[in-house]
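Extended Data, panel c. Modelled sequence:
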Amino acid sequence: MDFTNYPNIAAIDAKLGGAKQTIFNKKAFAKAEENWMRLGHEMIAQINYEAQSAVQVLSSFVMPSAVICMELRVLKVIPANDIIWVYGHVVKNSTNFIPTSKDHSVRVLTRNGETYILGTKSTNGFSKKDITGDIIQQIAPILLSTRPGILFGYSDEIAKAVQQNLQSVVNAVDERCYNANPAIQNNNAYGNPPNVGNM
């Protein structure tokens, strides 16, 4: 994707190391380009406007209408309308049963079941810091300003519901968004009223 006409998005791309197609990311690169194009000029222009004051967390930038993240030199966009659940994930590493480090990542689940990683931060194996919790507290108000029904934080209950019936969770989040502020017509990716019949 050429961001020449969108200087603030281009600046984010540069800050995150610059998107580059390689033999290892060819498929992901093409899909990301397709997702950017699907948004259309008006939405990309809105993201470009918001990008000048976007908040950086890990290897991502968060703004009211979207999240931009970099994975494998691919610049990906996640429209806020597509976000269903934002949660933390921690991997504990050890050697001979002795904790050596923890890898903290913040993940975003979208309405089509895709998971994006907003970046990873490592701490020592004994750290008690709630890295992901702090990040979620920072970005939640930004995303809730336009999509007030998003789920935040990990729970086994949400994970089970997503695994068993993702569409039901999507419908519930869309309805929460709509009920929180009917004037916000971003209750789902295409601006349709929530499908409450499948709740």
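The two ends are 38 Å apart (CA to CA). This feature is highlighted in the accompanying rendering.
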